[in-house]
Amino acid sequence: MSDSSTTRYAIELKDITKTFGSVVANENINLSIKYGEILALLGENGSGKTTLMNMLSGIYYPDAGSISISGEEVAITSPTDAINYGVGMIHQHFKLVEVHNAMDNIVLGTKEKHLKPIVLKEKILNISNKFGLEIEPEKKVYNMSVSEKQTVEIMKVLYRGAEILILDEPTAVLTPQETEKLFAILRKMKDQGSAIIIITHKLHEVLSISDRVAILRKGKLIDTVETKETNEKQLTELMVGRPVSLKIERPEVEEKKTILKVIDLSVMNEDGTMGLNNINFKLKKGEILGVAGIAGSGQKELCESIAGLMKVKTGAVLCNKENIIGKTPDEIIKLGISMSFVPEDRLGMGLVGTMGMVENMMLKSYKINKGFFIDKKPARKLSEILVKKLGIVTPNVETPVRMMSGGNVQKVLLGREIESNPNVLITAYPVRGLDINSSYMIYDLLNEQKKKGVAILFIGEDLDVLLELSDRIMVLCHGELKGIVDAKETTKEELGLMMTGKSLQGVDIDE
Amino acid sequence: MNIFLNFLIASVLAGTPLLFGTIGEIMNEKAGHLNLGVEGMMAMGACAGFMAGFMSNNLLIALLAAFAAGMIGALIYAILTITFMADQNVTGLTLTIFGVGISNFFGEYMLVHSETNSLKLPEQITAQLSNINIPFLTDIPVIGPLLFNYNAFVYLGILTAILCGIYLNHTKLGLNVRAIGENPGAADAAGIKVTKLKYFNVMLGGGICGIGGAYCSMIINGGVWMSNSVNGMGWIAVALVIFASWSPTKAIFGSFVFGGFNILKYYFPKSIITIPNAFYDMLPFIITALVLVITSIRKSKENSQPASCGVNYFREER
Amino acid sequence: MNNINNKSKQPLMRTVKRAERSKMDILKLRIIAFVLALFAGGLFILLIGYNPAQLYGTIISGAFRSEMAIQATIKFMIPLLISALGITLAFKMKFWNIGAEGQIIMGAIFASYFALFHSNWPHFLLLLVMFVAGFIGGGLWGLIPAYFKSRFNTNETLFTLMLNYIALHVISFLRDGPWKDPGSSGFPKIARFNANAHIDKIFGVQFGWIIALILVVVLFIYIRNTKQGYEINVVGVSQATAKYSGMNVKKIILRTMILSGGICGITGMIQATGSDMTLAASVAGGVGFTAIIVAWLANLNPFGILMVSFLFSVLEKGSSVMQSTYGLSTYSASVLQGIILFFILGCEFYIRYKFVFRSKGGVK
């Protein structure tokens, strides 16, 4: 048994360094965590949190440094090694096989012999009862909601008897209520002696769940503090490197005229389910209308049907009283409805990754001049203007955009949309993956447009940001509109309930 | 009736090389590798099998040689696509060009160096390749000749299909393979040795294709070496995978149906209507094209191509 | 002790990403790969009992030893070059058109109709009509898979492939039936074209080579500087992005495949009336497949294609000399081409990745 004077460490990292090409992702990191402790790993996007944890889970191998588990130096060369050492990681993008059911996913890769489904199911339900998880072992993953998928991921780790659990941004996709549930499970695991590392950039969550906080900035470990002895302000300063206010501006615009009116909009998905069901709302000039909802609640369908990319089943979208349903994307762009949509793969559908800024600038305007040939001159000029105006960092305007950093890519995309002087700007997840500095730059850009009288539909995922930036927030759930609320009046809890299907009680403010 | 029975029997015989090719490709695709080199691997198996049989006069050695040759072709593909992460389409196509080329090259090389200017399998091996007579069973009318009077390849093909079906759908290793084909990242994170298992499956599939090739060179032309004996069957096999919806057991049925299209021209009664031979020759290809179109019109989430098929896996991809 | 154990547990070899190489470095890599491929090919030649230096020498001298040899080499190059250019358009769009073989055949069939049945038309009018007919024939054959791809997302790789075989049997149908040369006794074949339908020669080679060179320049400009070329590039990277920016993706796919198939069809016309002087089942003769390798090796750059297809025709011509001198099959050309491409495919890896081997000193 361990000596009472020496603490039993679950993990000790010594001088860990990892580089990707010429990018140093982690530099000389020293960090340790005890059993029965929850450590929060705090840092901005791109600060190297996930890279560091991926070296514990066997996805990456460090260039230098050593890792000890339970006091013994180990080499984790693959996920198998990690599992053997009792390390389980829940990745931000779930590692599940969509067409298999929960059970098959849970036993996947384990060394035990083939169990009969009935025995296996029993075993899984036993474990889930112990930790208070709700799970349907026979449900196929592609039929599951995000939080159900996360439960399967946790179950995978528990099934393997891992004592060290790493969670990468687990709350990013959850409602406030689901987050509370997850935290309850984590506390239970901690009480049973597990060591838990949770990666996050949300300060209030850090304060509510962790015992200690380790802060990373630009690949370096800045400090480790006891949660009891710190506060949001100190953590922010450590994370960003200077005192900043995390308040997002919300300028007021006086004249608000409806420009876009969505009436009874319904969209059918390819698999026959309703992507959108009878949506009604108005979008006004000079406002930011936030859209909240769990991932896959109809955000994509909403954007694409307004942009003319998706076939609409019923309903109308009036832009200045002209129905745009049935128009081609080309015609809709000409009406000044501009969309910048950033799905998971970052470059999304707004930009062509292999092309440079210049050719990306022409994407929507290359047809303007007559003739058979393209004219790159105006696009080059525009690129150079944007580089200066938005401080875009790129070797030159011909460098393929996929080689640029996430923040710069977003600036290129939004910059192009804004330069086309739109009436309506639809933007989905514009700050996904960006550090705080770049995020605020994007918020400022949006606010500037709002002040100019542009109507902005902002699809967001971080409820805190939605609450501060938007004027009004509409909530989608399973393709249905659960209500539109005043962002100044509502609370996160109310939004959370609506996101999981509760309709708004009281008055809609869509007038 | 007799003609129809003969037609069915001939369909099975004509479908057997397709069956091997189809199973081989299913093994590849289930592991996430769209291997367009089936034609090439079959050609390599055709050459190696024939030559080994020609020189050793032993069927088992011929089969092993065909299997090994197919596997070597698959190994080239595996090294390039799994370890070097090269484009699967181009690598597969190159394997086909290379495989067909080297097979015909060696064939002609052997021809030139033979005394009689022709290559014919020795008697003993052709005897081993002739139809198997099972006492009593073969003598049952209709069912006997229909089920119990084929050459060894046919039974080997059906056995391979069933075994591969069990392997993929009812073993732990098979579950692991299917997981890799759907989401290699998930399989990797779950502790499955992705690279090893991919190599295993691709090479096993290549070996099976090689046997199919041996059928083409050793049986179709009556034991005489001819260049290009595989003649497009590898490509039909790739398409048949879709028809069989990635199931080795369904491939049995699919291959025999397509075998039937291949030989229809010899059995279709000329008295009803005379159709130029060329149209019969086109038939399997036209039907395959139609199958492609029909399957693309109705798409389903399950029973479809493994999700990561065609995409190489790199663990540290960000 | 512990430390030593730890070292041995490190992976023997692992793959990591590296900073992307410059264009110059990539070119160097490819040249190294090419040289390695020649060594591997040499090993192969050694294994079958010949002297590699001697055989390679035969290939080179075989392709260049006389004016006639050079002309023959160029003759090999013309169809390869033109169809590789056609394929390039489709591949730029990530449309895996491996149906060049069939498109060549259809182009040849359409053109042959005029050569066989309207050979009395004025020479240049006839050639022009045949040229257009070749384009239309190939274009139609490219349009079919494009339609199903754009409509139902039908797998184009297999579809175009099936069309190759169908086209081949269309020729055998014509040969055995409606277009059978009545003058040939028993053995079915299509009649030799009237001299009026032959392509003229310039510097001893049919003027197809001039058309090919013109196409190189035209395609280079088309891809780089025209709106349509721009659209092909965008669709090739992401159809979603193309739709989002207001492009009519279906139309672009159809249009590009007509062009791609059409250019391959021109190959068929030039091959039939410039080299074969008749419509034979071997009119494409595998050129459609080799052209894919050529296009890929040249990184879809028209001038690169010019170089690579020249290199490949040296190989083809050389291998035919190898056959007459050493009795080795002309299939040696496809074997060598395969080996070269295997090595180039392998070297692409080093553009973005590298292997890290277990260091002797362990992780430090």
TrEMBL record, chain A:
Matching SUPFAM superfamilies: P-loop containing nucleoside triphosphate hydrolases
Keywords, alphabetical: ATP-binding, Nucleotide-binding, Sugar transport, Transport
InterPro entries: AAA+_ATPase (IPR003593), ABC_carbohydrate_import_ATPase (IPR050107), ABC_transporter-like_ATP-bd (IPR003439), P-loop_NTPase (IPR027417)
Transmembrane intervals: none
Annotated ABC transporter domain residues: 11-243, 260-503
Keyword Nucleotide-binding listed: yes
GO molecular function: ATP binding
Pfam families for this protein: ABC_tran
Name of protein: Simple sugar transport system ATP-binding protein
Species per Swiss-Prot/TrEMBL record: Sedimentibacter acidaminivorans
UniProtKB/TrEMBL annotation, chain B:
Primary residence: membrane
Keyword Transmembrane among UniProt keywords: yes
UniProt-listed Pfam families: BPD_transp_2
Extent of the signal sequence: none
Residues annotated as transmembrane: 6-24, 36-54, 60-80, 92-112, 147-168, 199-220, 280-297
Keyword Transmembrane helix: yes
Membrane topology, record value: Multi-pass membrane protein
Keywords in alphabetical order: Cell membrane, Membrane, Sugar transport, Transmembrane, Transmembrane helix, Transport
Taxonomic superkingdom: Bacteria
Cellular localization per UniProt: Cell membrane
Name the UniProt record assigns to this protein: Simple sugar transport system permease protein
UniProtKB/TrEMBL annotation, chain C:
Domain of life: Bacteria
Membrane topology, record value: Multi-pass membrane protein
Principal location class: membrane
InterPro entries: ABC_transp_permease (IPR001851)
Localization annotation: Cell membrane
Transmembrane segments: 27-48, 68-91, 98-117, 123-144, 156-174, 202-223, 252-272, 328-351
Keywords: Cell membrane, Membrane, Sugar transport, Transmembrane, Transmembrane helix, Transport
Name of the molecule in the record: Simple sugar transport system permease protein
